[in-house]
Amino acid sequence: MGCAVSNNNVVTTSTHVIPVPIASNTKMSNIDASHISTASNKHTTNILIASHTTQQTISETLAQKIVDQCLSCYLLNETTPQSLSARANAIQWCDVFVVVVSRFYQRTPFCMEALNYAKDRHKPIIAILAECIFRPYGALGAILASAIRSIVLSDDASFLHAVSEIIASTRTEMITNKNPLNVTDLSQINDNDMMHTFPQGSSTCTVLICTADDGDSVGRLIHESLLNTQLSLIVENLSKPDATCSVTQCTVFMPILTPQLEQTPLCRAALEQARFHCKQIVPVIAVEKWRPEGWLGLIIAGRVFFRIFDQETANKPFYDSNPITNLRVATEIACQPFPSETEREAIEKNALQIELDICKSKLSIWPPKRKSHVINSMKARQPVRVQLQEPHADSYFEHTHHSITRITFKAPPAIVDQYGLPKRKLLDCMISYQWGKQNLVREIYEDLRMRNVETWFDIWGSMQGSTNDAMATGVECAKVILVFLSKKYIESTNCRLELQYSVQRGKAFVILHTEPNRALQQWILEAIEGFPQYDVYSYDVLKQLINGVPMIDVIVQAVRSLAQAQPPDPVDDCSAEIFELRSLLDDARDALSAETGEMRYRTCTRCGQQYDNYLKNGCKKHSAYYLGGGSGLLEDQWVCCRQQTTDSPGCISCEHIDQPRVFVEDPYYGTSTWKPA
């Protein structure tokens, strides 16, 4: 890493002026500015309804009924208003953020950006569930798990019920919310501040580092640090006279976020251009103890961003990495070609069509009898609670801790791919914790890793793209949530959201209390009731024996036993077209099973779970042998994972089976194993 770069390394770009692209606005029928509250009435109640344009009719109907009740209402979708400041101000203006939930809302970045910002601004959120065959997932599902109210729209009568619930919930929030930080100047909720012309630079680059004067030194530092990546880099200071911006010519746009950048109109216009042209944005905050809250806060809402203030913070060690290295990795990932949703789903669509053709050729009647795929979005999934065996060991069964680095062992598996998109990988558990406990968490993760427990938590660069999406994907993929409860965990908005979404998805819990004498809210007590709980105030506690078994092994066994008992948690992460093809294939396979008499759903002879014969993944087997016979110096155990019983859950992924199994002893070595494994 070098020192600050000289002025000669910064590319100067030529200027020509181009019009700013303007998307077509969607008008708000029967809703005009007179229905939006003014600052003169401090008792006015402000409601914002956010939706995708495909649900605009629903939004307008709700808005008109709300206005008829003498409340103020504003509509926001992916195109209206356009300017960043107007969108941010509209969200700040509202007392309650109402979101009309749909597949299109889930899959539209500008819609999710608004919801993430509402969450960051601590706005009370009300969910209007407008599609009966869609269950929200990812960041949308996670944020809605904390909604103050969820309402299903099914018919005209439900509109009146929805309006009544919205108004009642809003008024309750107005009473309990003592200090709302709302924008009250209506002139701030319009597109009048957008630049009608944009001073476009002509330089072509891979990475454009955009800065103002107060972030210039950090921009140059990053430029110097990324030179060895062989990427084409330029730095543009947009606070200079006659400044230009080459945002349309770059692949990755890296704004250096500072107070001056937030106040510079050209910087805001540059970010609006980056959003409009779907550029990959990698934000860097360059001012210590500062975070943007206005339009710039909207840009980073839900995003992974970096904090680099100077050479020292850029290279400050963080385990086996540092901020500038993590920024370099994120930048290189962002430079890769990003497939469209259509391209990403084309492979699955073709695979589904092949399977449908096979079913069609075998069935006597086509199409098959269809069954309802309506989802009860109001009903939370329920976890399976199990009675755990009392720990017991008669022979030597001590605990030895092994430290892990990226050089010697694998880091937690990435929960998102190189594009920041969710990867559906079955996990035994996800670790949910507050960052202040990371040293303890890391040590316990190392023990889990040594025992072949597939675990994920957000360290070592596994977080890419949207932080809320990554968190939600971890919850969705995990069978068990290992929670490190502390005072700061309970007080943290993000930790609380993580726990609420885990409850909504019906996850099992193993609770580690990391501090004594801590009061828990009633909903938390209800969520963790009946699940194993342990007091782990320091790492040394894990070495203590419970009936001869180290506490860490007791915890691991609890995780495994609970994970094996949990049913699959399917995620509806697709377009309406793909969902219809999946549903049709499901119906076709049911029809084929009925015609042939061949059972589709069977019971696994290894784990006891029911499984779909077309989808056999989700089971576990042991990767090594069982050592013991009750007379050795060492405690009987599977050498691959230290579990003590012969029929304990497996430790590596495999397919379900329905063949009979036999436990076979090798008399020569004194070891045993299952056949088939």
Automatic annotation (TrEMBL):
<dbReference type="InterPro" id="IPR000157">
    <property type="entry name" value="TIR_dom"/>
</dbReference>
<dbReference type="GO" id="GO:0007165">
    <property type="term" value="P:signal transduction"/>
</dbReference>
<dbReference type="Pfam" id="PF13676">
    <property type="entry name" value="TIR_2"/>
</dbReference>
<dbReference type="InterPro" id="IPR035897">
    <property type="entry name" value="Toll_tir_struct_dom_sf"/>
</dbReference>
<protein>
    <recommendedName>
        <fullName>TIR domain-containing protein</fullName>
    </recommendedName>
</protein>
<feature type="domain" description="TIR">
    <location>
        <begin position="430"/>
        <end position="515"/>
    </location>
</feature>
